[in-house]
Design goal:
The protein is mainly β. The protein is 7% helix and 49% strand. The chain has helices spanning 2-14, 16-25; strands spanning 32-36, 39-47, 50-55, 60-66, 71-78, 95-103, 107-112, 121-127, 142-146, 151-157, 160-166, 172-181, 184-191, 197-205, 208-214, 220-223, 251-255, 260-266, 269-275, 281-290, 293-300, 306-314, 317-323, 329-332. Strands 1-2-3-4-5-6-7-8 form an eight-stranded antiparallel β-barrel. The radius of gyration is 44 Å and the shape is elongated. The model is unreliable at 1-29 (pLDDT under 50).
Amino acid sequence: MQSRRIKHFSLGVACITATAGLLSLGTSAQAETYSSNWGVVKINRINGNNWGGTYLDGKALLYGSKSSSGQFSGHWIRKDGSSRRCNYPISGSYYWGRATLQFSGSGFRGQYGNCDDEPRGNWSGEIVTQQPPQPQQVRLDGWWKGNNSGYYSIQTSGTTFQMKGFNNDGSVLNLYDGTIKGNTITGRWKNYCDNRSANATLRYSDGRLQRIAGSTKNTTWSRSARPSNIQSQPNCTRQTQPQPQPVRLDGWWKGNNSGYYSIQTSGTTFQMKGFNNDGSVLNLYDGTIKGNTITGRWKNYCDNRSANATLRYSDGRLQRIAGSTKNTTWSRSARPSNIQSQPNCN
């Protein structure tokens, strides 16, 4: 009996400093937490194989060594005097006992005893999974103004996000339907008038919405007051942009190197007949007009050589921008007096 007392007394002296530290510092944020028949147990590594923590929801201490296999051997210590008083103190308390526990991934099982008694009381616990705190979703509902133009009304419900766009004149422009995940919204917008649509990804940061992917009229949105001119219907007439009138290319042109050229157009059809300086027919270019660009192919009347060429009208001139042609630019000219209807292939 005396040797047992000396053995456990020595172990108690060895853990006085550590358990005193636990009393003042508590357990770290990395503590393992268990729900047990003696309240919540929180225990974490102090150093090496030395582990310590609290139980009874923080009102009592647990200290000892735990092996890599999870075998724990140590002492429980209380300050409140609610258990049997021992003959000598451990860590300044006369209320303590031995504990032998086996920890696993799901919890622990073992026994505890009072003072020097052999551990015989059952002590078990199940691990408590720590859930990380979920960030609070920012309230995006309300009115926002685009950095380029327009006002936007945002409504959310859970992870559902809807943003209705309005032109500066108050007419409805488009609708964006998306899904919120953290501070990011993924979705698709659709124009009320022409039904154009596209994907876009937005992100809330520093009090603003920002476009981080996709296509939108604005790149950022900031909170705004509700405009006074908001309408319930779109104004689709205002979105019809005037179409530029095609340039009249018909007439005579002169090449920068040689020859004269007669151009005739009909809609997007483009035809340019080339003549040598002596007036004889040289070649014929057939093309298609798109904007200020003509793509097509020329063919020589005599040797049937042909090649692709792309022309562009700019600053009153035609310019070759791709392919092969005798000239690189053409300027408007009067009709030559010596024009013939046949090629001179001699």
